[in-house]
């Protein structure tokens, strides 16, 4: 994953990790039992769920803080967690029945090399399942953009990959990415779910520098940050909420599943 994610593990675990958990059941349902490799495991939710289904799980992440969080989340479940980064995994070829990468290929510096490495470790007859954010604005991105605009925030230049390394950020583009890794794609499309999140959890992630919203927030002065938080509160109050008072944000991501 990119350097922007280094050192934000604790803030991520208390905020945006619950967003990324929305695709976990999909990835597990689309992959077989047996030896499961979860690449870019983050705070460990997918690894924990895979172990709960009786799978033998190896979870890896490039960030040592995420590795520590994943180990904590999977204590007593027999999950092995180690530090490793795409596109070079010190894992034997064809060693996993199931390989998952949940919101990983959209963060690595070379998605094509990353997918080729993921394909290498899938056992013949196994499955690789990945997810990616698309180029379509998410409900949370719209919320954050409106709060930044209302607070007079200074825009921060986005970080885009060189054209020859990038892929089309769509369901079709993700399918093409896996097919380019020499895999036979058997399923793909968009997955939709609702993210239920407490406003304070959102602020924890943003203040902690998680993702583009966190990096933009940290780039502002204290006055703009204060105005942003006030605008976010007002805007969030106008959105749907669940019985626990959490904001409900409709979410959508691309997914693709391929056979080795």
From TrEMBL:
Record-linked InterPro entries: Methyltransf_11, SAM-dependent_MTases_sf
One GO-annotated biological process of the protein: methylation
Molecular function terms, GO-annotated: S-adenosylmethionine-dependent methyltransferase activity
Chain ranges of the Methyltransferase type domain: 37-129
Matching CDD domains: AdoMet_MTases
Short name of any one Pfam family annotated for the protein: Methyltransf_11
Domain of life: Bacteria
Entry keywords, A to Z: Methyltransferase, Transferase
Protein name: Methyltransferase family protein
Native species: Terracoccus luteus
């Amino acid at each position: 994953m990119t350097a922007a994610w280094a050192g934000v593990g604790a803030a991520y675990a208390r905020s945006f990790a619950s967003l990324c958990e929305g695709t976990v059941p999909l990835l597990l349902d689309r992959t077989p039992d047996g030896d499961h490799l979860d690449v870019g495991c983050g705070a460990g939710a997918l690894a924990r769920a895979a172990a709960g289904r009786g799978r033998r799980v190896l979870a890896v992440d490039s960030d040592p803080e995420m590795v520590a969080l994943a180990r904590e989340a999977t204590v007593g479940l027999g999950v092995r967690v180690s530090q490793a980064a795409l596109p070079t995994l010190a894992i034997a070829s064809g060693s996993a029945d199931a390989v998952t990468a949940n919101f990983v290929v959209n963060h690595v510096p070379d998605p094509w090399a990353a997918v080729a490495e993921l394909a290498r470790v899938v056992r013949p007859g196994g499955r690789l399942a990945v997810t990616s954010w698309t180029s379509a604005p998410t409900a949370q991105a719209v919320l954050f953009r409106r709060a930044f605009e209302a607070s007079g925030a200074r825009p921060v230049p986005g970080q885009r990959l060189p054209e020859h390394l990038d892929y089309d950020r769509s369901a079709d583009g993700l399918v093409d990415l896996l097919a380019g890794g020499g895999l036979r794609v058997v399923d793909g499309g968009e997955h939709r779910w609702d993210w239920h999140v407490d406003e304070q959890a959102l602020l924890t992630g943003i203040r902690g520098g998680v993702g583009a919203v966190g990096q933009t927030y940290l780039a502002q002065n204290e006055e703009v940050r204060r105005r942003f938080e006030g605008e976010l509160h007002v805007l969030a109050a106008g959105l749907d909420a669940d019985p626990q008072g959490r904001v409900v944000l409709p979410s959508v991501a691309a997914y693709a599943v391929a056979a080795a």
